[in-house]
Amino acid sequence: MSLSFSSPANRDARARGAGVTAVLGPTNTGKTHLAIERMLGHSSGVIGLPLRLLAREVYNKVVERVGAEAVALVTGEEKIKPASPRFWVSTVEAMPRDLDVAFLAIDEVQLGADLERGHVFTDRMLNRRGREETLVLGAQTVRPMVERLLPGAHVLTRPRLSQLTFAGEKKITRLPRRSAIVAFSAEEVYAIAELVRRQRGGAAVVLGALSPRSRNAQVALYQSGDVDYLVATDAIGMGLNLDVDHIAFASDRKFDGYQFRRLNPAELAQIAGRAGRATRDGTFGTTGRCPPFETELVKALESHSFEPLRVLQWRNTELDFFSVGALQASLAEVPKENGLTRAPIAEDILVLEHAARDDDVRALAQTREAIERLWEVCQVAGHPHRARHHALPVPDQGTDHSHRLVRPPSGAGRPRRWRYRHAVEPHRSYSYLDLCCQPSGLAR
Q: Which pTM does this prediction carry?
């Protein structure tokens, strides 16, 4: 009798799907609401969300149900942590490590295909679990990847609760009330908002550059009905629940961190689907300088039919902190499973490469703790908004690609503020910020 043995990788893959339920479907199917209800049915839980503003919205809903003393909020900009929280609400990047909770949910897992953030969503989907229940939520396009990477997972599909209909092109000044106008740069958002204010009396503005307080106030301004128009970036497409009847695209092109490109149909659907909440129907269309949508695109958006994802971004998370070289080698590993591809080299890895060439940095990075700290600083270098609780990385302009570490003196005289400066991309302009030096524990 012949015996066959599965490889450790295959056994790990089979184990990943155990106890996991994938709830998939288009926008306005109640997936996030389901996750909240399921979490509150457990003794403890955490929900990872794709957007800071959505995390704040879900946090407020959970607080209304169980009280502020039982709920923690962790994002790159806000951290609210009571003494003994039972439930945690966070952005996917900021999901606390080593939490032992009964329930865990990850929202919008189709973002695992995103070139910039995708590897984080993929990691959470593959490796984070609740003791009793795990939910992964996302678009129908991610189903083939869920079935491949989480074998044995229970897959549920949910239909949209309302109809989504194309309304054609309208001038900005002729848009119906309760419209959200979507653009892809701060300059365009503010220009459109000013036009709407002059012509229609008022508009709220939502974009990532605003402080949490300002964003929350702008959302409240719109939701209360004080203004009937919202001008925003595509961030509103990531599950944010607003009373929007019509979505107007002022543009269909964005900079994705690598290039200016047209949004694909699934990305446009994620935004257009914000129109119409619960059983109330919604419409979408174009405005401003956005070119008209083709007939095939309109049909795809109305029927929620899109090409399935074939690959997700991946980056090794089992890092070796024995030395800086070992850390670099572990970050360079490639995935061994079909359906995963190594994520593009991000700014944090580029910063680490520059740091590894610096004599002062090498002299400091001699212990595991020091190398872990160095990696955390590198991770926030390209994302200053993530550095709230960390020493500041500040890229300097220049042509010599210089790299230097300005470190605080050790001992009791150590100042509270210090700077970590580098020049990874001399063509980019950065503002100088000072951030408090705090204990490690990256919070995005």
A: 0.81
